[in-house]
Amino acid sequence: MPNKFAWIISPKANWDDKKELITIALESGIDYVLDLEDSENIRKVGNFKIISNEEDADIYLVGIGGEGDGTLELKDNLNESVDLSKATEAKNSGKTVCAYILISDKLHEQLAVVLGKVVDYIILVGTDWTIIPLENIIADLQKENVKLIAAAANTNEAKVAMETLEVGTDGVIFEPKDFAQIKDMANLIDKLSTESYELKDLTITKVEPVGSGDRVCIDTTTMMKPGEGMLIGSYSKAMFFIHSESLESEYVASRPFRVNAGPVQAYVMVPGNKTRYLSELETGDEVLILDDEGKTKKSIVGRSKIEKRPLLLIEAEYEDMKIKSLVQNAETIRLVDENNEPISVSALKKGMKVKGFIDDSARHFGMAIDEQIIEQ
């Protein structure tokens, strides 16, 4: 399931109470706020993205808070919609645009589809949430470059919206009432955004030193535990599960925030079922941490460290596919064996089995595509 997200509507409360709820949202990873009156104060609380109808908004809003509210002026000819006119003008001026649409009848559903071909985001609000025609709107806009956001009062509504037609809306928006509600929504987003990869047992066919090269260590902002690491390899569609340095060694202390990944040209799996070259990673980038069951969580790169080190060629096969990759030739670099136990690359022998991921798709600029690409 693609990554999901949550926005909040600035709560109707005095500033002190509003500030506390907005702060909790930020601490929970929710940093987009729809607000029509307190944007200046909100920016002082933290680095938020403001959605409003102000000219300096991070995301320009149409359909609410404007003169007459465009959705209330809807005409049978959707091309004459006030919202559509405002959205088109804002897009042409270079703004990121969000449309707010109150779905009360079929005409508003049709307006959402028309606007979806112009704006960047659509907030869908139902007068009777249970009959919001989400399925129709999702189906009609699935090939458009627009993010759909459903208004939800609780996690039950949010979950239904983000799972409708399996694809679901891209996110939800809610007005926070208390600490528990914000945390529940944030936890739901994390759960629904989790990607899983089916790990296969790859059979080792060769292990040999190949000389030196520039090797990358990925230091993350996450403390990894034994059984966690990253998918890394020389082939974008066949990657090894490289274990984190979360284990103690007689040679060096554990560094549970680190994965000694491989040479600069290797790929690493990142959120959204995409890959990046190790050489591209910088502080602030996102990567995927994987456990030995294939479940993932996102993490931020705190530092990418490149040093010249001796390298080891690892060859393996899965069914009729040959897989190769390079790692640093050191006892502290580990893969994961067929029993989900970490194994040092210095202990690898022909015939042993290690965990890896085989992708059905080829990749172009890091994105999975349906195309035959030969990697060797």
TrEMBL record:
Domain of life: Archaea
Enzyme class: oxidoreductase
GO biological processes: amino acid biosynthetic process; aromatic amino acid family biosynthetic process
Name assigned to this protein: 3-dehydroquinate synthase
Enzyme Commission number, as recorded: 1.4.1.24
Family in the record: Belongs to the archaeal-type DHQ synthase family.
Keywords: Amino-acid biosynthesis, Aromatic amino acid biosynthesis, NAD, Oxidoreductase
InterPro entries to which the protein is assigned, alphabetical: DHQS, DHQS/DOIS_N, DHQS_C
Residues annotated as domain 3-dehydroquinate synthase C-terminal: 202-376
Primary role: Catalyzes the oxidative deamination and cyclization of 2-amino-3,7-dideoxy-D-threo-hept-6-ulosonic acid (ADH) to yield 3-dehydroquinate (DHQ), which is fed into the canonical shikimic pathway of aromatic amino acid biosynthesis.
Pfam families: DHQS, DHQS_2nd
GO molecular-function terms, A-Z: 3-dehydroquinate synthase activity; dehydroquinate synthase activity; NAD binding
